[in-house]
Amino acid sequence: MRVRRYMVNKLEEAKPAILRDLGKDAIIISTNKVKAKGIKGLFGKYHFEVLAAADNKTSTVTQESKIKAKPVTTTEVEHHVKNNELEMIKNELRENQKLLQNVISDLSNVSTNFPEAYEKLFKKLVSQGIIEGKAKKLIQKLQKMYTSDSKINAFLIDGLRDIMVNELETIAKPEEISGNYSIALVGPTGVGKTTTLAKIAAHSALNKQKNVGFITLDNYRIAATEQLKIYGDILDVPVVVANTVNEYAEAMSALNHKEQVFIDTAGRSHKNTEQLLELKKYFDTLALDQTILVFSLSTNFKDLLPIYNTFKIFEPKGLILSKLDEVETYGNIYNIITEFKLPVFYYTTGQSVPEDIVVLNSSQIVSKILDNNTGDVQ
Ligand SMILES: Nc1nc2c(ncn2[C@@H]2O[C@H](COP(=O)(O)OP(=O)(O)OP(=O)(O)O)[C@@H](O)[C@H]2O)c(=O)[nH]1
Ligand SMILES: [Mg+2]
């Protein structure tokens, strides 16, 4: 293992030196902002100390084949993240999952006066996690469309499918992020913002051959910058750290030759309005093309309502729904789209970068809900 230390004025200046000295397989171990020595330091001038390391053998694999051959799992990144912090995130997710299951089983006892075939579908929707009020409205629509004997029971579900697909298409059709954008991901803690940003940037850089850059505004957790830098290094994409509004403006201008700039933000609790307003100051100073809100599908819908109400100050253009792989039922997707009326750009399906991300159209979402038997109450 060879380790080198670099003192630079701007972080991006370290990159060519690291590549020259340590090769493409080098990883950045740490970056520290240090006050300049002597009189410059008194005037608030900073340098960056960058520690980088590489194995003794240098690889000649290209960036693209490296990503295909060895997807980066977050287990690698987790080495750099405090263990107890990760444990907290995982516990939180487990708790949310339990809450969702409780809500589902409570609702399975709800009864209505629907005729038997409709009642069965109502229960199906509720046990898949669609909230009772929304499920009732869907079944009422279905009843209006077909008087009970005009349609054979077995085909009612196809009528319901059409209604749901039609609603999702009308309310907020899935969209693709495209064009020349500066894109920031915002959302609660631990939902997968940084991992998802790396996945999207990888697709832009590798599949669409776009020239991309990262800015991180996350100076909250010690390991957060490090996490993005590892992805930046693997993707060969510059990562600029901005600790103040001024540094953010400087970072945006340093990267203005890029076709897309992806901005990572620190996870914020919706209850901490002070922190959220602090973050908003950045985007008020220099507007972005897109702010995208990331929700974890394992957060139950009741908890998402106050979260959305707080995060809407960022005027999100759309949503990314993460951790599709962690849920057993999919009705929450219907709740989210019909309630917040925002298009979903992506769904994330696991920890591997860049592959665990998908786009789902409205009929695929409805199939996930109606063709899933897990969680069904008989
Ligand atoms: N199962 C699963 N885990 C995911 C997914 N996306 C991210 N994760 C994991 O969730 C954890 C948190 O991911 P991060 O990307 O650090 O989340 P974040 O929103 O940036 O977190 P903060 O910056 O602390 O708010 C990590 O262990 C990720 O590997 C996903 O789609 N499925
Ligand atoms: Mg993060």
Notes on the structure:
With 378 residues, the chain is of the alpha/beta class. The chain has 3 domains: 2-60; 85-172, no CATH class; 182-361, Rossmann fold, CATH 3.40.50.300. The protein is built from 15 helices and 11 strands. It has helices at 14-22, 39-42, 63-69, 74-78, 83-107, 116-127, 132-145, 153-172, 193-207, 224-235, 245-254, 273-285, 301-311, 331-340, 362-370; strands at residues 2-8, 27-35, 46-54, 182-186, 212-216, 239-241, 260-264, 290-296, 318-322, 344-348, 357-358. It has an 8-stranded mixed beta sheet, with helices on both faces. Strands 1-3-2 form a 3-stranded antiparallel beta sheet. The protein is elongated. Guanosine-5'-triphosphate (GTP) binds next to helix 9.
